[in-house]
Amino acid sequence: MFPHRAAIVAAVAAGAGLGGWGSAGAQSFDDVDAIVRSGISRGIYPGAVVVVGRADGVLLARGYGRFTWKADSPVPDPDRTLWDIASLTKVVSTASSIMVLVDEGRLDLDAPVARYLPRFQGDRKDEVTVRMLLNHTSGLRSYVQFFKLAEDRGQAIGLLYREPLRRAPGTRPVYSDLNGMLLGLVVEQVAGEPLDRFARREVFRPVSMDHTRYVLPRAQWELAAPTGRWRGHPVAGVVNDQNAVVFGGVAGHAGVFSTGADLARYAKWWLKRGYGATGPVVAAATMEAFLSRTPSSGSRLLGWDTRDPEYPPPSVFGELLSGSAYGHTGWTGTELWIDPDRDLFLVFLTNRSYAPKVSHSISALRLVRAELSEAVVRAVPGACRPTIVPAC
């Protein structure tokens, strides 16, 4: 029984939550429906998309609620609605692009960042490696409002290079947008082209993520779920993250727009150990290397995160995923996790950042994510095996 199960059922029975649709066998996902719709009825987000699947296919693809709180706004569609995926950019675009370069032998994870970015200099910065940027042990602080300090991309990059380390490199993980920004610059330096162009050609297209991109053309803005308001009007199709804005919309830490269906293809790519639509995109061994941690990286893998047993519950991953599961979340209300032992993935996309009706909506969404993760495991036949997690 979920902690708020009675309240969820009561809300659904009272008609809370707005329509949705799904694949065959949807009866087994009743708890999933109830939990996602409870987030709408509680005012955490106006709309959402859920996609659940395995390496060989999708088990559930469903849209919930509306783009905004207005009853006549569009219903999210798993195939067509574009979401500002925020920090999911760090894995879907940036870490994946780094992985391709590693697979091609063009980049060394344990090389100092300064080998590729000579302007990254200063006290002990010569000790910071590409791996440390990926697992957030670089020593850089979490966040800087570059958009308030710089007028354009060039100025922002200059400030990024001058940012001092706050801890000894490689000692402990502190999640940082600055790591993602630098990794995006590493990709551009090694590849010799902009991050968005490289990611689209070397990651998105081989994985058949045909709708995934940075910088949406104006003609596609109407397909995007709004992530904020300006003078009372919904803002959609423009990246929410203001540091990504000052970077021109293309940055290593944020900026990508994608659909539920495209992210499902991305998840299946990982479950298939590097095989894309027409064959291997990277070697299985290379992909496996990105699912490793160091003694000092805590719950952090290379780009990805895992459930941290030392972090106060509830975990966004819930308590039923296997020890091999990994994932990431985004500030706008997005989430993706993959569990190889269960052969299972979850894509959960919301626009939590658009005019939530509750205070501390991030904390409220955390509980929804935890409950949803457990409901997905329980709903999928064979996923909840005692040999993996006895608590099932």
List keywords for this structure.
globular, 392 residues, five-stranded antiparallel β-sheet, three-stranded antiparallel β-sheet, 12% strand, alpha+beta, Beta-lactamase, 13 helices, single chain, Beta-Lactamase
Main sheet: strands, sense, barrel: 5 strands, antiparallel
Which CATH class of the largest domain?
Alpha Beta
The strand line-up of the biggest sheet is 2-1-10-9-8
CATH superfamily of the largest domain: DD-peptidase/beta-lactamase superfamily
CATH topology of the largest domain: Beta-lactamase
| SS-based class | alpha+beta
Beta strand count: 10
**DSSP summary: helix tally:** 13
Query: Helix and strand succession?
Result: HHEEEHHHHHHHEEEHEHHEEEH
CATH architectural name of the largest domain: 3-Layer(aba) Sandwich
Proportion of residues in β-strands = 5-15%
Helix-residue proportion: 25-40%
The total number of structural domains is: 2
Structure, described:
- 32% of the residues lie in helices and 12% in strands.
- With 392 residues, it is of the alpha+beta class.
- The protein has 2 domains: 148 residues, 2-Layer Sandwich (Beta-Lactamase); 165 residues, Beta-lactamase, CATH 3.40.710.10.
- The strands form 3 sheets. It has a 5-stranded antiparallel β-sheet with strand order 2-1-10-9-8, sandwiched between helices.
- A hairpin with a 3-residue loop joins β8 and β9.
- α1 packs across α2, α2 runs antiparallel to α13 and α3 packs across α9.
- It is globular, with a radius of gyration of 20 Å.
